[in-house]
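Hi L., both proteins are below.
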Amino acid sequence: MTHIRKAIPEDRQVIIKYVSDMIGGSDQVEVAVKEVDKFFQQSCYSVYIAEVDSIPIGFESVKNDSIEGADAVSEIVFTYIDDKHRRKGAGSELVRGIELDFKNQGIQKLYTKVNISNIRAACFWISQGYQFESRLLRLNQGIDYYVLGKEL
């Protein structure tokens, strides 16, 4: 069974590894360090760890800043589950845990952005009840993204 908990500073290195694995590229570690440092230094981020037998197997970061004109909306920035634990329910448990926590905080909607070429991720989010809301053209390095959202 997957246990979900809030991340602590001691989780920083494993989260850097996960983010680095996700983004790839020649400067992936440098970029990952900058991203993860934001998670721990800026109060607008909440980071959760998924673990099995007290061993981290994934994480999720959520940015708590509401979008201008939209109160009680938060963005799921990164979600990662180690390859060995995918398709076993850990990602679903992580998402359900985050949704419950944010609903209890008064958040009414969560959304995430998915690279349009990442079909597996888009299918995962749709299976979690997230719905297509928009397509962002050439957002990051000329890549298009889907925006998927869910009312809590």
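That was the first. Here is the second:
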Amino acid sequence: MRPIEHEHVIPQLVDHMRPIFDSSPDGVYIWLDGHHWAFNDRFAEMFGWTLAEMQASAFSLDLFVDPADQEMFVWNYQNRVGALAFPATFRFLGRRRDGTAVQAEPSATDLSARRSMLASFCPAS
């Protein structure tokens, strides 16, 4: 069996998870790598972007994570989510497009042994 290329996987995952993308009150994204990711409009809006603007961007933590928290965000992914240890929930300081801060709390889980991630984000209370 040939592996499915990422550019084909993202649309399939989005279609499969359409009910989550469309009805979640939270921001949701799927990340496969720096070029292949998808998210719902609530995720884009939470960080001050339109869906179209974010879709036109390559994945970068600079789009939504404050520089001071990027190392911690990556550590949580690499050591908790990507390690398949367990679904991870942590808080980080998000940064909106206009520069304002937002406390965010993702609930992230690994989708496969290939270190891809499904996460939902809500404002931290």
